[in-house]
From TrEMBL, chain A:
Organism superkingdom: Bacteria
Source organism phylogeny: Bacteria, Bacillati, Actinomycetota, Actinomycetes, Kitasatosporales
Annotated compartments: Cell membrane
Transmembrane segments: 6-25, 45-69, 75-96, 117-133, 153-171, 183-202, 305-329, 341-361, 394-423, 435-456, 462-483, 490-511, 523-544
UniProt membrane topology term: Multi-pass membrane protein
Species the sequence originates in: Streptomyces viridochromogenes
Protein name (record): Sodium:solute symporter
TrEMBL record, chain B:
Region span, Disordered: 1-46
Biological source species: Streptomyces wedmorensis
Keywords linked to the UniProt accession: Membrane, Transmembrane, Transmembrane helix
Protein's name in the database: Integral membrane protein
Lineage of the organism: Bacteria, Bacillati, Actinomycetota, Actinomycetes, Kitasatosporales
Bias-annotated ranges (Basic residues): 1-11
Length: 577, 128
């Protein structure tokens, strides 16, 4: 891949982000502008901004990588990311806007009239935000490393700097423009190359991708295995090896590996003849496979259970992601919040038609990425692989720019919401200056963690954020909006038991503490049991503490559900003065 | 605590405070609309009858939401079971790669129209 074009594209995206952010800075005059863009963002612009913010690197790069390695079952990820917005729309969107609260902590306090519940919610907002920021920064590092060979901390630092700068300078108004721009950039960056790649694929005789059998290498292929892997062979395979296989050193020797499992040391080069079947990577529990993490090793019931775990986490987790929730306050009223969400569903759905195409093309033209564990790079390398030449370089650069837009937009949204909570609940005063300090804190912590723990598996952090959000904020929002008898102790018990158990289960799986078989599957995909646990504990503890029902509950529920002509859109009117 | 905030941060005091303390909607509301139909002032003044009106709106909105979720569960949530049957790979691609999105959008579109109609009906009921 041509480094010059890629670097130019990434630079252009970064510059455009800073410029549009600066434009927002000139418009962003009042404090209200700064935090919530004065709640006057039109549905079209706001929807593009929400979509731009939501489509992270996991969507832009990760889905294609997952499909390449594991086939169409992985399409549940984009489906879940989209359907999450439908659940958000029908249960939460308009009441959340009408609550007038800015962060999820504000919602908790407004609904429950309890500072403790607010503090606990803040803890979860910051935790989930950091969990989600970490992979954005690490993914940026990985992408820049693939594109330019720069050390892996450079990309993360670059994203952190740009995001801190734009968010701290312009606040919500400026990132609304930035993110709306980045949605269209990301869509273009995937759509244009996809058209060229499909034309080339058609011209090539439209070969079919096979997912039910090992992928077949189309040409003479040299694979350099970066990290040590175990490979499984169904039949004996002849390869040329330089390096160590099963602890035996080879120097450019042609050997026939027997069927079964083999251990390939990191740094080994394997050369395959055309038409050779690609060995499958044998998965071990602690393998950091990037976003290309399989749905819990097993098949049969495990596979079905894991799919439902994924569905529950993504369908119900979207509403509790801090950067998603914060966006609803920028709508002028509840009806606009609903219509905005409808447009978001269209925009996000249209985007998600594209990544699976890259996954399928990757399976045909670059299946060896699965073996080297760099399947996340499939989107970036395909133009060079299929088209080559100047066109391949240019399209590759466009995709690199799009990937960076993905890191930047999601990271800005998360930074904005985490910084908002830090300003309100951690730092002493509440002026704009402290918000800027909080912004720094919001990006510095995950950046620091990313540098120290460079091998934290990226996929887990994203999946974990969804599972924790589905088990904590989903019950809080749904019961808070629709149930009169919710009490502060109930809400806090639900947050702790639901969100806490999801967090502990996945962390324990990661640390290798889960025994094999069903316990492993249950703990790796906790949403199926942790979401009901969150709801159940919230309901039961609330029923056990009936005298703690906040006295203002009828008034706040009326405000959440009545159209604005009854309650008045106070915040928006005040901002206009 | 919110009333101590400097006035340049309007959002929390308006929302969380006024509503949480039974403040009949916003203080300015009464001044802006001096004459209310009876049902409307019941709502503004948080009477039992007012709560009954709010409950009826919540019930109709919840019914719309649950209908939409039911459609989602039936049409999308059942897919893992269907696709667990020996299905041709092309079907999986068509269902998950393309088909799901228009279905989700159509459910959302139905819900938005329904929820707005519920609100219009409610306004009509209260104002006349």
């Amino acid at each position: 891949m041509n480094q010059t074009y890629a670097v130019a594209a990434v630079t252009a995206v970064v510059l455009a982000t800073v410029l549009i952010g600066a434009l927002g800075l000139r418009i962003s005059r009042t404090t209200s502008d700064f935090y919530v863009a004065s709640r006057t963002v039109r549905p079209g612009l706001n929807a593009a901004a929400i979509s731009g913010e939501y489509l992270s690197a996991a969507s832009f790069l990760g889905i294609a990588g997952l499909v390449l390695v594991q086939g169409p079952a992985m399409l549940w990820y984009p489906v879940g990311y989209t359907a999450g917005y439908l659940v958000l729309l029908v249960l939460v969107a308009a009441p959340l806007r009408r609550s007038g609260a800015y962060t999820l902590s504000d919602f908790a306090e407004a609904r429950l009239e309890s500072p403790q519940a607010r503090r606990l919610a803040s803890l979860f907002v910051v935790g989930i935000g950091w969990l989600y920021l970490l992979p954005q920064l690490q993914g940026a590092g990985l992408t820049l490393e693939i594109l330019t060979g720069a050390p892996d901390w450079v990309g993360g630092l670059l994203v952190a700097l740009v995001v801190t700068g734009t968010v701290a300078a312009g606040g919500m108004r400026s990132i609304t423009f930035v993110q709306a721009f980045q949605y269209w950039l990301k869509l273009t960056a995937l759509l244009v190359p996809a058209l060229f790649l499909l034309a080339a694929w058609y011209g090539d005789g439209a070969p079919r991708a096979r997912f039910d059998a090992p992928a077949v290498l189309r040409g003479y292929t040299v694979v350099r295995v970066a990290d040590t892997v175990r490979i499984g062979l169904d039949a004996p395979l002849t390869v040329t090896v330089t390096g160590r296989v099963d602890s035996v050193p080879y120097a450019d020797r042609t050997v026939t590996l027997t069927s079964g499992t083999h251990h390939v040391l990191g740094g080994t080069t394997l050369s395959f003849a055309p038409g050779a079947p690609l060995p499958e990577r044998a998965v071990t529990g602690s393998d950091p496979l990037g976003w290309s993490q399989p749905l819990a090793g097993g098949r049969d019931g495990h596979q079905l259970y894991a799919t439902y775990g994924l569905i529950l986490a993504t369908f119900l987790g979207t509403m509790g992601l801090p950067h998603v929730a914060v966006r609803f306050y920028t709508s002028p009223h509840g009806r606009a919040a609903r219509r905005t969400t409808l447009v978001v569903l269209g925009l996000v759905g249209a985007f998600y038609l594209l990544p699976p195409l890259y996954g399928a093309l990757g399976r045909i033209y670059a299946p060896e990425l699965a073996l080297t564990g760099s399947a996340d790079a499939a989107v970036l390398v395909l133009p060079d692989r299929i088209l080559g030449g100047l066109l391949g370089d240019l399209l590759g650069a466009l995709l690199a720019g799009g990937a960076f837009a993905a890191f930047l937009s999601t990271a800005s949204g998360l930074t904005m919401s985490v910084a908002g909570v830090l300003t309100q609940d951690v730092l002493p005063s509440r002026g704009v200056r402290h918000f800027r300090l909080a912004t720094l804190l919001a990006t510095a912590v995950p950046l620091g963690v990313g540098v120290v723990a460079s091998k934290v598996p990226v996929a887990d952090a994203v999946g974990l954020a969804f599972a924790v959000s589905a088990s904590s904020f989903c019950p809080l929002l749904v019961l808070g909006i629709w149930w009169r008898r919710l009490t502060p102790p109930g809400a806090m018990a639900g947050l702790l038991l639901g969100g806490g158990s999801a967090l502990v289960a996945v962390m324990a799986t990661r640390a290798g503490l889960a025994p094999g078989g069903w316990p492993h599957t249950l703990m790796a995909w906790p949403a199926v049991w942790s979401v009901p646990l969150g709801f159940l504990s919230m309901v039961l503890v609330s029923l056990a503490t009936p005298r703690r029902v906040p006295p203002g509950t009828p008034a706040i529920l009326a405000r959440l559900h009545l159209p604005e002509e009854f309650t008045g859109t106070v915040p928006a009117q005040e901002a206009r003065r | 605590m919110s009333e101590h905030h400097p006035p340049r941060r309007p959002r929390r005091e308006t929302v969380t405070y006024a509503s949480a303390h039974g403040g009949a909607a916003a203080p300015g509301t009464a001044g802006r609309r001096p004459v209310h139909p009876p049902a409307r002032s019941e709502i503004d003044e948080q009477t039992t009858l007012g709560h009954t009106y709010v409950r009826s709106l919540m019930r109709s909105q919840l019914r719309a939401a649950l209908t939409a979720l039911g459609a989602l569960a039936l049409l999308v949530g059942s897919l893992p079971l269907l696709l667990a049957l020996p299905a041709p790979e092309a079907l999986v691609w068509a269902a998950l790669g393309v088909g799901v999105y228009p279905v989700v959008w159509a459910i959302a579109h139905w819900y938005v129209r329904r929820a707005e109609r519920n609100e219009r009906d409610f306004t009509g009921l209260v104002e006349h």
